[in-house]
Amino acid sequence: MKYLLVLLAAMPGFGAREFDVVVIGGTPGGVAAAISAARAGHTVALAEYHNHLGGMSASGLGKSDIENRGAIGGLFREFVGRIHQDYIRRYGAGSPNVKLSREGYYYEPSVAERIFDEMVAAEKRITVFKYHRLEEASRTGRRVVAVRLTNRANGEALELRGAVELRGKVFIDATYEGDLAAYAGARYRLGRESRADFNELHAGVVYQDYETRTFLTGTTGEGDDRVQAYTFRLCLSTDPANSRPMRSPPPAYDRREYLGYIDDWKAGRMGPPKVMKEGVGYFAPTFGTVVRALSIAEIPNAKTDVNMNPRPLGFPFTEINQDYTEAGWEERERITARIRNLTQGLLYFLQNDQAVPVEQRGLARRYNPAADEFADNGNFPWQLYVREARRIRGVYTLSENDVIAPPEGGRTRVHADSIAAGEFPLDSFPVRKRQPGHDVALEGYLFMLDNITRPYQIPYRIMVPEEVDGLLVPVAASTTHVAFSTIRLEPTWMALGQAAGRAAHLAIESGKQPRAIDVARLQRDLLRDGQVVTYFRDIDRDDPAYAAMQYFGTKGFFRDYHAGAREPVTRQQARDWLRLAGVATKAAAHWDSAGPLARADARTVLPAIAAAAERTVSRGEFCRALYESAGH
Asked: Contact 609/561 with Cβ under 8 angstroms?
């Protein structure tokens, strides 16, 4: 890839700008990283390819894909809180729009973008470079030291008048594609691992019945280079006064690309699901119609978040994006335009084609591009929904086995360096068009595997490249294809971005590389800022022991999702927890079945033990005292 082992400053006439932290990618993860680093006191450059910040959350993804709100906190929680208050301020607490915003988790793209812009603008240490394209990365030895960007508004790739060099102490790749990591020479994966690579049941070539979750004929588990389909996420209005109906088909329109949906409808594949679930895009008015090609969810101001439904066998979006990740910028734009035209063509087909029954065409005509969204892009989203591209090879690779319930039950795998929690079910779009002999599901489609996915810990190591220094990668992180399908949600990426920004601060402050920072301190900093690093089902955010129990959840204190903060700590639990915490081993040895620990010994070792020796204390009190003790 494009990286240089000499400083770009050696180029004649080339001026560099210095920052503490350089973030490439104005995605939600990138915005969170920039804000986190700036709030820690650092100057930050935030560069984005498009002329907008916010990635998918500001470009059509109008509902937060999150199953367990308690698992995501920090800057994402601040973001949705600001959205909620914005709707209350404008419409009143009891208004329909506030109710539709669902406490800020559902929103109009324009509102999300405005909130992101406001959050960034409030941090005076952040300098934003919108509409800038990454061209090169520079390394000195293993360490990234600079990047070169092109201002897309006034310069071509090799024209210095349009070029910008940014130097930094730490770089953060927050692009959906993992571009900076690749340009810097970091190794990465692209495609699907085999079952054998990481012992993952859902890896490789897979056909699965999305209703029963059973594997179908044709499943081999073989790895390949296929990438799940990309689409656009639309914002369509049902208000005629705020609609821009399509009067003509898009370029290269071909109705034959959509006739598979008619076959799906006639075969009965467009009916309601066997099991209804809130937030999945089930929209009763479309059941039993061709319009179920769209997954529709209502958001404020008579608008809808519209996804492309991957269940129909006529789904036409697979394979088009296969070459996107490794393509040059012009080819990426061509592929993006092709997917845009295909998306607009589907809406035109549903509204106008004679093969669609007249009453169903009438239903489709109720949904049209919102006139007050994406005004500078023909009322069409500007960000392609890149669900998965490169995934770096990091110090640790998150796999399916880190995020599913273990056979014996209880909590998912514990990571001592957990810096965020994940919670969304394994869920991947198809990778291939309909294959002969397959009439249930498209290959590669894994639908919301909530039957096996459980809230899990995300280790810091997945953001750290194997060999490249000075770089953190919170979006194109080190996971398998299967595991990526659960971390690839904007709330999770914001949590990882926040952690990356704070880790950059610790690296700069300590003079160490990001791979060598004090992760325990990082965890404490994140917990202070409202991040979730260990999910529990039974503890409130305002509990005095909330941070302590999360922290020690990363040390193996808890075998399940039960914190039991108010339950008395048993002698055996205290001994086990002291051992796992790696402290007070002498005191732990004294605490035996013969009686309480001698007070003198206890007080010389740890206040938490002294308290427990004198009286019965709760699990929460014990963890909190241990957490607050000097040196822990």
From this structure: no
